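Work Package 3 (structural annotation) set out to generate three-dimensional models for the target panel prioritized at the project kickoff. During this period the team completed the workflow that converts sequence records into discrete structure tokens, so that structures can be stored uniformly alongside our sequence database. As a representative example, we reproduce one entry of 211 residues exactly as it appears in the project archive.
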Amino acid sequence: MLSQILDYLFPKKSLGNREGEWVTPEERAQLRAFPIILERAALQREGIAHLDRLVAGSTYAGNPLLKKAVWTMKFRRVPALSRDLGSMLLAGAMHVDAQDAVLVPVPLHWSRRFHRGFNQAELLANVVSEARHIPVVRALKRVRATGYQSHRSRNERRTALLGAFRSCVRVPPRIVLIDDIATTGATLDACAAVLKEAGAQWVEGWVVARG
């Protein structure tokens, strides 16, 4: 009964603005993976100093509905979309060896998590863990709110992220960071720097999209 009332007051609209569901079968078919893998040398040319590899399921440019799907999951608070987006992430990392690695979701500050109701990186990490049988370890804590990064330059993002993360468990040697999107890579790089300082030997990032 409650769900029917909520659907009436706040009707579900798909990625293409159709009412009744968050994503239609036709839209789901368009969320195809176009994997991108950047190794350390390519990342360093972009100014990403600590991350050893970046794997993305697709780019926004190659997938018109993908940006709307990520936005809908986070800002319309639709955690169910993590299944579709997690499948894209998995397709991107299909041939990437993760033996002896653990998954570390990029943490949200407690205030952002409270407002949103979930951490999208944790949901995605759970999807990957279930499919690849890789354990999830919450090895990082976001100790300072950094605000929204989307309209900041690379240097502004780096400045905002200084001191924002802290390791909170014994850090294993090989880590796969999980997040929804990497635009400049500043957030993943800041996390990788903290993890390596705490003892990690290899840190790569797996994301749904490269923005």
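Residues 129 and 176 are 11 Å apart (CA to CA).
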